[in-house]
Each structure stands twice: as C-alpha cells, then as structure tokens.
Amino acid sequence: MSKTDPKWLDLQYNNRARIPDHAALFERWREASALARQGSPQARLDIAYGDNADERLDVFPAAQSGAPILVFIHGGYWRSLSKDDHSFAAPALVQAGATVVVPEYSLCPTVSIEQIALQMARALAWVYQHAADWGSDPKRIVVAGHSAGGHLAAMLLCCRWREVAADLPPQLVHGALSISGLFDLEPLRLTPFLKEDLRLTPASVKRLSPAFFPRPKRPLMAVVGAEESDEFLRQNLLIRHQWGPSAVPICETVPYCHHLNIVNGLADPASRVHHLALRLLGLV
Question: With 0-12 CB in 10 A as exposed, 13-18 as middle and 19+ as buried, what is 116?
Fold first, then answer.
C-alpha cells in the first residue's frame, strides 16, 4: 500500500482507532489529574501567560529552592485534550525535585499549529521570567511533550528566543523530551481524519517540521512505544537521522507501550520515561 494512500495514513495515525480502551484511559488520566490537583495545595492553577482565554498554565512548585523546571505539553493532535487531563504527571516529578508547569493552548481548527507554537513560546518566556516567583531556576528549563506536544517540544528547542523577547537568553530551553513525537508533518497534511482540522499546506509543513530544521544546540531525547504504528516508529528514528546523535543522544523504543500508555511513565519513578526526564533536569 502506498504511503500516501489515505486509508493507510488513517491506519497509521489514528491512535484512538488503534487503542480500543482509549476512552477509559483518558478517564483515568482525568481522575488522576483531579486527585493530583486536590493533593497539591501549593499548586498555582490557571495562571495567565497571555491575553487569550486559553493562555493559562498550572504550576506545581518543588519544595526546595533552586529547583529545575519541567514544562509538560499535552498531545491530542493539536485539536483535543487539555492541561487539566495531564496534572497526573506532576506529583512524582515534584517529589523527585522538579517544579512542573503544564500549559494550555488553543486548539485547531480555531487556530493554526503556527499559532499554537507561538503560544507555547509565550508560555516558556513567561516561565523563564517568573521562575523566581516560586523559587525555581530559570537556567534549568526542560520541555517534555507527548505526540503533538512532542512536536512542540522540538519546535521550542529550535526557537530563536531573542525574537520572542529581547531579554530572553538565546538558549532558553536546557533540553527536551519528546514522547511519541511528530517531526515531519507532511503525512498529516494528507491524513483524512486530520486534514480538515489541521489545514496544513506544503508551505506550513515546511515551517512546522522540526526534522528539517538546523540541529539545535541543546539535546532532544526521543522515545516511542514499541507497540506504536510504523509511522510513529519512523518519526522517532527520523529526528535522530536528521539531527544526529550529538543533538539526539537518546532515541529509543519503550517496551510494552502504545501511543497513550507511554505517557503514564512520567508519573512512574520506575519507568524509563521518568528517568530520562530526571536526567535532562539534572536530578539523577
């Protein structure tokens, strides 16, 4: 079957169709996230980082001063899910010594992926400028993201920060962790169940495919579930091939994981995903 065949592309990228219990898994995320917020009295929720109603973020501060910061960007193909579904990732990372920030963004088709990327740049700028408010270290900001969030994490690693604001350092992001990320958006432009919402064009694909950007100066760790589709496995290998091992020192498949349950690893101190996040944060 051709790799531009619409049916093949839907089979490769429609993860909800590939995972029959996805609705139950999303519900577990929501329940665990509500408990995480209730159990974190020190958390600061729904802080504005911009003027848009969607430009809000949650901060889960570390207990100790000078902590590194992990910003986690949720997935959902830039068109679904919310920060409120992903608070569950915070407690274990906070316990390990990190401040965790979970930003919200507007969703396609109301906005474009370009606009979402700019929102995330504004969120990261806000985090840098306000890190001292909760006693954390603005020089140790790591971005992690799942699926579309993994794409946005890679974009932020390549961001020209001085063009966002003159007072920002050129290397604001210390490192990034992409979990089942997307680095070449051309297939998504042609995928039937996505294309009407994403509205990608050949020009926007070029602007938004980090695999074809100059390699960044800070590291990206890229992981994907061993049970994911061939295309997600390819996407993960592609970023290592394009950027090289110096920019992508870790490029791995995680055993027994599919596209959704791999995210649970952030909340599990015994998991490889959690360990890699701590490595980037300098906590192991």
Answer: buried
CB 198 within 8 Å of CB 242: no
User: Phi then psi for 31, rounded to 5 degrees?
Assistant: -65, -45
The C-alpha angle 95, 99, 101, rounded to 5 degrees, equals: 125
Which tokens belong to 22?
């996805």
Q: CA 7 to CA 12: how far, in whole Å?
A: 9
CA of residue 244 relative to chain centroid, distance: 20
* Whole-angstrom distance, CA of residue 265 vs CA of residue 223: 11
**0.90 cut: is pTM over it?**
yes
CA distance 112 to 197: 9
Tally: H helices and E strands in the chain? 12, 8
What mean pLDDT comes out for the span 97-108? 98
1 pLDDT more than 70: no
240-271 pLDDT tens trace: 999 999 999 999 999 999 999 999 999 999 99
